[in-house]
Design goal:
Helix content is 59%, strand content 8%. The chain contains six helices and four strands, in the order H-H-E-H-H-E-H-H-E-E.
Length: 121
């Protein structure tokens, strides 16, 4: 989402390609929080808040459900056992995607450690 908001040509092109294919574009409530937090602490607060709010109003925001919480606990346990633990927020993002049968478009390589998570590049 950050790359999309910054207008990264690779990300914009990939999202455009997905939209043309009729793929729904969504984000998670965790990502929404991270984007809003970043906007609030930025030096261009009002401009960034406006951009984030506009972006979030045009896509589906997937909630954190009890099923996603259980999946997150399982992901955390598996990653800890393998010595590849990632941040709590990223575990929650992965669990929301998995329980909603959604892929994640990301440049963050650590999501590869999550078994059964579909990644789009």
């Amino acid at each position: 989402m950050i790359a999309l908001l910054k207008g990264s040509s690779d990300t914009v092109d990939k999202v455009s390609e997905l939209v043309k294919k009729g793929e729904p574009i969504a984000t998670t409530i965790i990502t929404a929080y991270e984007l809003l937090k970043g906007a609030y602490i930025s030096s261009r607060r009002e401009e960034n808040l406006s951009d984030v709010r506009a972006a979030l109003s045009n896509i589906q925001v997937l909630d954190l459900s009890p099923e996603a919480c259980e999946e997150a606990a399982n992901i955390h346990c598996e990653l800890k056992k393998s010595g590849k633990l990632i941040s709590e927020f990223d575990i929650l993002i992965a669990s929301i995607a998995k329980t909603n049968n959604e892929a994640i478009l990301t440049i963050d390589q650590h999501f590869r450690s999550v078994k059964g998570l579909e990644l789009v590049r």
